[in-house]
Amino acid sequence: MDIYNESLGLNIPCHVGIILDGNGRWAQKKHMPRNYGHIKGCKVMEKIRDDADEIGIKYLTVYVFSTENWSRSQVEVDGLMRLLRNYLKTCIKRANKDNMKVVVLGSRDRLDDDILTKISELEEATKNNTGLTFQIALNYGGRDEIIRAVRKLVKDVVDKGIEPDSISEKMFSKYLDTGDAPDIDLLIRTSGEKRLSNFLLWQNAYAEFDFPEVLWPDFNKSRLIESIERYNKRDRRFGGVKEE
Ligand code: IPE
Ligand code: IPE
Ligand code: MG
Question: How many CB atoms lie within 10 A of CB 1?
Fold first, then answer.
């Protein structure tokens, strides 16, 4: 459900997803290494998370590392993991100060043990916070998430005797990494690319898509509001017919 923001005069989507893309191109334009773009991109992500909270967005999900991103150079992957470690160091404190619940979506495979421990600590320490739910899709792939959910469900079918006919969309959703979070209302992808790249395949079923022509490190609060303005002009029908 959208929430009306009176000072902006806009309906605010409950759940916004962002594919933050264009860090590498931003750095290359400046004749800098790609990891320089990721460092700036991380700062912008933190700022946008605060802006989203202030505007009244309830769920923000960001795509920061895909299951396919392991195929990048070792230098780039190492740089991204270093950035993640730094981020995780301060995140619990900030999240609790802002009453923010942090959830990490994605596979736990391939991540180093110290990162996995920090992620569990972060999720545990913030799970009862009632403000913004901030979901970080890390080592995430939409198909991988669905396969992991199917495995868990099949296990429950066998172990707990769940009737196959009782499996509904609502029930299946709970087996996904996003659990009880609502579906995406507005999906933003920066940098001009117009594809999902395996992001939240199930949860984007009825999302509105917006593709601002800006590289992620140049994204800011006014760009976010512009995306929400375009969202406000959309006519969401969910397969029905609009009442005249
Ligand atoms: C997005 O920026 C961040 C990650 C995928 C980690 P990119 O690194 O994909 O930047 P471009 O698309 O190469 O410019
Ligand atoms: C998608 O961006 C993944 C993230 C933003 C984390 P990519 O830059 O990896 O996607 P493709 O390769 O352009 O599809
Ligand atoms: Mg990219």
Answer: 8
Percent of the chain with pLDDT over 90: 98
> What number of other Cβ atoms are within 10 A of residue 203's Cβ?
23
Q: Which residue has the tokens 């997803």?
A: 17
What the block records as the tokens of 160 is 């707990």
**220 Cβ closer than 6 Å to some ligand 1 atom:** no
Say how far apart CA 180 and CA 173 lie, in whole Å. Answer: 7
Residue with tokens 């990162």: 115
Q: What's the rounded Cα separation, in Å, for the pair 20 and 227?
A: 14
Residues in the chain: 244
Beta bridge partners of 137: 63, 105
Q: Please state whether the predicted TM-score (pTM) of the whole model is above 0.90.
A: yes
Distance (Å) from CA 66 to ligand 2 centroid:
7
Q: Check pocket membership of 66 for ligand 2, CB cut-off 6 A.
A: yes
Give the tokens for residue 6: 């009176």
Lowest mean pLDDT among 4-18, 192-206, 230-244: 230-244
Question: pLDDT of 141-165, one tens digit each?
Answer: 999 999 999 999 999 999 999 999 9
